[in-house]
Amino acid sequence: MGRATVAAIVALWTVSISVVVNRIVPKPYMDEIFHIPQAQKYCSGNFSDWDPMITTPPGLYYLSIVPIAALFVKPSLSLSAICSTSFLRATNGVFSIICSVLIYDLIVLLRPKIDKRRATACAICVALYPVHWFFTFLYYTDVTSTAAVLAMFLACLKGHYWISSLIGAFSIFIRQTNVIWLLFVASNAAIGLMNASAPKGHDISGYSSPPLMKNEAASNKTKVLTKSELRRRFQRSIQPDESPIGENLSSSTGQNKAGFSLADLWHELYATIIMVWHFRWSLLVSFFPFILVLVGFVAFVLWNGSVVLGAKEHHVASPHFAQMVYFGIICAAITAPLHFNFKQVGILMKLLWVNKTRGIFMLTIALAAAFVSLHRFSIYHPYLLADNRHYPFYFRKKILQGHWTFKHLMIPLSVYSWFSIANILGKSTGRIWALLFFKACVGTLVPSPVVEFRYFTIPIILFLINSKIDGQKSLLVLTFALFIAMDLFTMWMFLLRPFEWAHEPGIQQRFMW
Hints:
By secondary structure, the chain is mostly helical. The protein contains 25 helices and two strands. The longest helix has 26 residues, at 85-110.
């Protein structure tokens, strides 16, 4: 059991299913009709011709042609001949295996006490996440983008900030919104570095810094301890939370209590700001590489006039706050065993009733925010209205524009979902981490006018890695079963249930995420 086992199992299903997909769907499909011809232009040495419909940078295309050029080109063959649809799709197959290994390494690094068998099971389960799994077999940017973000996260947790920033820069070269995840990773690393500098057994946010980070922080520890007044404030802010919301997701995890409490969150924010100010110069030096990447990205946006490269008129940044409602529901639904069980419902009820006034206030604000988001900040993009080959089309048709009660039922459901997400992350990673996660979701999802479940992939995978889905064996088994069922159903619909549009007879359409 371990890294090799994870890679072997993922490689087994990747290779076998790729063969089937390429046999049944040999030609570029959906967005592949843009990506594959563009990559083939790069293969032939044409780097100046750009399809104006492509919105993302060419990072994926470079990743595809570099190994081909290095390993497979013989004098009798040309790059353009090798860059077939199946060969380009194999790029994502390779990166799906890399992704699974990165997931395993992150689980082991974040939870040093986990045994290899359990870490292997968790990594395989996360690798089966349906949207990520499906796009392993097509030539989209999602899998390589996810791999780059996970590699950036892992390098940063290990304290390799220059390497992490370089990977982060390339992740932006694959998909622009990864700049938000670069900020998220750097912010959490900064907090982790301060946590590692704190007195033994204490930290700002309830998040235990990885052991490798503690070594780097050792040189700063003396400075922290000599600031007596700062230390007293800091230690007062990090006393373990003894309220019911601090109960562990599983009684067997044995972690310190650190549930999601609004009052404690404000207290921790205050302590974090003080520590950031105290370490401002050392943090500036340590995380200068990330600042360089951020400055470069801002310069690109100013020069380009937009975040996206092509089809700018269809991807104008908009205040699409309903995305947060959709994400909360989809995340909770796709990880239903973690959220919809009696134990979790009981914990959230205690969260609200431990302080009735504060609980009712939080619930009212959350319900009002969800209501306003759905009724004032919902965008029905032309892509969503016209294309019945995606899940989001039916989500819009059957729920958002179905019976009026469906849309209103989404409000309490989304509030419950976000409370549950925050509670689970608050206990496993800390309140500040959970808050930064929420902000990163806002930054990546809200500006997008298009509802695409593909855009939820990175936050959901990060949630799964940090949610301790193995806390109870039954939860892990149920999550496995749910993911496999969704994977098989969607692939069956894609491969074996093609259909035709009346206005395009003879052309097969296929259902997908």
